Amino acid sequence: MEKRELGRTREKIPVIGMGTWEMGDVQNEGRTLEIQALRRGIELGMTMIDTAEMYGQGNAEKLVGQATRGMRDEVFIVTKVSPEHFGYDDVLRSCEASIKRLGVEHIDLYLLHWPSHKVPIEETMKAMEELVSRGKIRYIGISNFSVAQTLKAREALPRSEVACNEVRYSLTHRAVESELVPFCEREKLTVMAYSPLDTGKIPVKKVPSSLVDKYGMTPAQLMLNWVTYREAVVAIPKAANVEHVEEDAAAVSTRISGDDYQALSRIFD
Fold this sequence. Notes:
TIM Barrel
């Protein structure tokens, strides 16, 4: 699996990871299948797993903990704190609760899930830096922040860096492309694309069959190849089942050409 540097950290992360939105709530056979999918993804090099305290009210974090038990050194775990917990003490408590649910000693990358309009970013980031100093988290990130909000988040970190901004980005959902992605490229922030397959709404009929045949890829694989074409971008498609995980992992075994990247961009512009 191709790897890229996380922000300015020199940490290498896979260009295709796994997301867990709407996972962790099912039981018995369904839960077993989700665990199998996550473990298969790890085998295939998709060793970055993204989750959040709000996913399934903590059940997604528990699922990730169960799926990665015995292989902590192999995985890069990303989770997120919700805006209602952005107060200093609340951030510390949320992190400890996530660590407990995940069954780990630390979180690799801890993100602010959405901007808050109630708690000053300085208070929240003070707590995030305290978590770094305590060894509870390794890196700090944000999610769904605009360029202006990203700048404020960076200014509120006197001793640390913002490593990434996790945002919705796909061939069919490109709102961040005009301003945020170029900004992150210039400033060496990783763009972590969630819903890179547009929550499963894959426009099969619009993807040229000539490209499908040329690269031997499915439309979904071409979408993942396209969204991670730019060096600053990695993607976290949902790890729904083993079949989907295997399809996703093979999406970047070869790279589409610059001309074909531009062609796809024009079709979906």
